[in-house]
Structures
1.
Amino acid sequence: MASIEIANVRKDFGAVSVLNGVDLSIASGEFAVLVGPSGCGKSTLLRLIAGLEDASSGEVHIDGRRVNDLPPRDRDIAMVFQSYALYPHMTVRDNMAYSLNLKRTPAARIAEVVGGAAAKLGLEALAGRKPRELSGGQRQRVAMGRAIVRNPKAFLFDEPLSNLDARMREQMRLEIRKLHRDLDATSVYVTHDQIEAMTMADRIVAMNAGVIQQVGTPLELYDDPANMFVAGFIGSPAMNFLDARARRTEHGIAITVGDTAFCTLRQSLPLPDDGRIKVGIRPERIRIGAGGGQPVEAVVDLVEATGAASVAHLDLTGQPLKVFTTERLQFVQGQHVPLAFDAGHVCLFDGSSGDRLR
C-alpha cells in the first residue's frame, strides 16, 4: 500500500489547460474514484500518477517519494485500462505471468503467484484459454490478474468497465470492490459513471474543467453538494434545479418559484442582493399528494415506468420537475397533481456562480 499526494499539479497541452492546479491526497489503502464528464481531466490526472504524462508544473508523490522524474516502470504501480490489452497469442496463464517472466522470477514462484491471482478472480478453469475464447468480463479479469501478480503499491483503473454490458458492469463492480478489500490495496479509479462512483468509492473526487469541485464520501457529495455541478452530476435521476427568488421574512427565507410559493426555510443563509437563486431538490425527496406544508401544484407531462419505480416528469410554473417514486403511477398528460416535500431537503445555490448558499 502507498499514499498518493498531488500538489498544485497543472497540465497544459499547448494553449489548452487540462488540469488547473490540482491538490489531492489519497490515503494508503483507500479506494478513490475520480468522476466527471468527458474532458474534465480525470484520465489525464491518472496518467500523471502513472507517469504516462508529465506535469507542466506541480509535484506527484507516491509513498512519500517524489516521482515526477521517474519512468512508469519505477513507480511500482499497476494500471488496468478500458482496453484489455491482452496478448492474443498467449494463454490466460501466460498473460498474467508476463511481467514476472520479464523479471526472471523463478518458475515455482510464478506458478504460486499466478495461481493465487487466478483463484481470487475465478480464472482457474480458464488458465489454458486464449483471449479470443473469453467473454469481455473474463478478459477484464485477466487484465486485473496481470496487475495483481505484480503486487504493486497502487492500482490505477482507467474506465475499465466501459466496454461491458450493464449486467456485467454490475457484477464487475462488486468483484473489483471485493478484490480491493482482499488485497488491502490503494486504488485510484476513473469513471464518468456516477453509479460506479457511488457504489465503489471510499471517497469520490468530483472534477470538472480541470478543477476538483468536491472531495468526500459518496453520501457527503450526495447529501451535501458544494455546488450545482456536484449536485447535478451525482444522483440518478439528477437533482431538480428551479429558477426561484428568495426573500427574508419573520418566519425565515421564503422561496417563490414563478408565482408559486414553494417553501420557507427556517434558517439563516446569505442571499444575493437581487434574490435570484436556484432551488435544488432531489426527485426522491418529492411526494405526489397533499402534504402538511404549503400547497404546490404541478402538471403531468409524462411518466416513465421502470418496473420497480416510476419517474414522473412534471411542469411547475413552466419549469421541468422530476419525481422519483416506488409507486406505480397512473397519470395522464395534463393532469394537475399536488406535491409535498420536506423543506429540510431543499438546497439553495447562487444563481450566477452555482455555489451552494450556506
2.
Amino acid sequence: MPAEKADPPTMAELSPAARQLYAYAAERHSFEPAEAAAALGPRAAGALTELATAHLLQRAPGGGPDRWSAVAPRAAAARALAPLTLLVRETHDEMDRLRGRLEALVPEYEAGTAQRDRSGPGRQELETVTDLGTVRALIAELAAACEREVLTSQPGGGRPVGALEDAIGRDEALLARGVRMRTIYQHTARYSQPTVAYVERVAALGAQVRTLDDGLMRMLVFDGHTGLITVPDRAGAALVVREPSVVHFMVSAFERCWLKADPFPATVSREAARSLSDELRQTIVRLLSEGLEDKAIARRLGMSERTCQRHIAEIMRAVGAKSRFQAGYLLSAAPPPPGAADGPGDAVPEPGAVSERGSGAAGS
C-alpha cells in the first residue's frame, strides 16, 4: 500500500484583486509588496498571498527576499498538479496489484463453477434472489464475466442517482473491454438530468441507448445465456434465468422493443419534446380508455402520479368529460381523427412538460 499522504490542495477561483495583481506582476520583471500596495491599494497584500499559494508568484531570482515575480500559468499548473499526479500514479499501481491478486484466483473459480455445472443439481435454471445486496453482487459477477453483449431494459423513467452511481463504473469497465451494450429506457427518462449525464458517459464509450413509451419489462441479459427480471410486488428481488428457451424469449422481447424505440438524444429540442409529449399523451389516452387508474398509468409510463393527473385533466377538458369514467367511455367510443395513428389522443391539445417519476431497477 502507498504511504498515506495529506489531501492535495484545492484551488479556488482567483479573486479580482489577485487577478489584478497578477496582471501587474506580469508587466514587470519583479516588484516589492510596497510597490504593489502603492499601485493597487490595501488588497494587494492578501492578493499576493493568494497568488503565492496558487504558485503564480515566486521569489524573484537574485532579487532579494522581498522581491516577487510572476510565474507562467502552465508552470504554476505543473507545480500545483504534482501531488495529484503522484497520487494518481500510485493509485493506478495499487489497482494493478489488487487486480493481479484477485485474478490469480480465476483458475480455481472456473474449475469450481465447471464442476458445479457438470454436477447438475447445483445449477438452477430459475432462481429467485430476494436480497438486494445479493442481486447487486450477482449483477457485478455476471458483468465481470460478460464477453459479448449485455442487454438492459429499464422502465420507470429516470433512474435514481444511487443506482446510476453503482452502475457507471461497472458499465464503463464492460465497454472498455469491448463488450457491446444496448439499453432501453422510457421516454420520460430523457427529462432526468442524472440519467442524461449517465447516458452521455456510456454513449461516449460505444453504448447504444434508446427510449420507448410503454411495453418494457425490467430485465438484464448477459451474453444471451443468463438473464435477470424483477419479481412483481417484491422490491429488490430478482429472478435469475438460465433456461435457454426463456432467455431466448427475453432476448426476442428486447429486440422487438429495440426496433420500435427511438435513439436517446444528447439534448432534447423543443420540437422533439413536443413530439415525445404527443406520444406520451396518446399512450395515456389508450390506457385511460382501457380503464386503468391514475397510479397504474403513471407507473406504466415512468412519471409521477401528479404529472399523470395533470395530463388526464387536460385530456378530460379536451373531450368535454366531467369524470374519468366518462372520459374513458368517450375516448374508447370515438373514432380516431383523420391522419391519427394511435387514436383520439392526436386531437388533444399540448399539455405541460413531462416529469419523470425517478424510480429505478432493483439491483441495477
